[in-house]
Amino acid sequence: MFERQFIDSLDFANNNRELRGEIAMAQMPRLQDKLVVLDAGFEHDHKEDISYILRGFRDRNDKPMLEVKLDGLCQLRCQRCLQGLIYPLKLVSQLLLVKNWDESSVEVEDEIDSILVDSHLDVFSLFEEEILLNLPFAPRHPVGVCRPVKEGYVVEEIDRINKNPFAVLSELKYK
Ligand SMILES: [Zn+2]
């Protein structure tokens, strides 16, 4: 159900292609040491799948671009109590496709991230990279919240995140 996807990135951008679907956290091996896996009961009830939209286009300067949008919940390890911390993953990033790294330096003033053109781009590996770049370095529960993860806490937390994901995100990032 989560087959790996490959695209020809330049062709994808030139033809305004789009790919949508879901990916399981378990499919991104480089993320595993950042994540906490709860018991099977948890995974069954609240699947830690991330929905994605990958879009190719040419920007206003006619440069080939990819846009990655990821949305879902994952569990990081709280650096204070070492228990799971539910983290709302909401990520949008735009990447310029370049043929070599010299070309990318021209774009530095625009602060656009670049990736090399790849005729066999591993889409999930790209998502993994983007997630790694965007996860907080030392995530912590808000003060006073550290406690063993129980099913009740998890449900409560997901509820809170669903009501206001951006408030939860800023709490986590700036603590
Ligand atoms: Zn904690």
TrEMBL record:
Pfam families, per database record: YceD
Domain of life: Bacteria
InterPro entries documented for this protein: YceD, YceD_bac
Keyword terms of this UniProt record: Ribosome biogenesis
Keyword Lipoprotein among UniProt keywords: no
Protein name: Large ribosomal RNA subunit accumulation protein YceD
KW tRNA processing (keyword) present: no
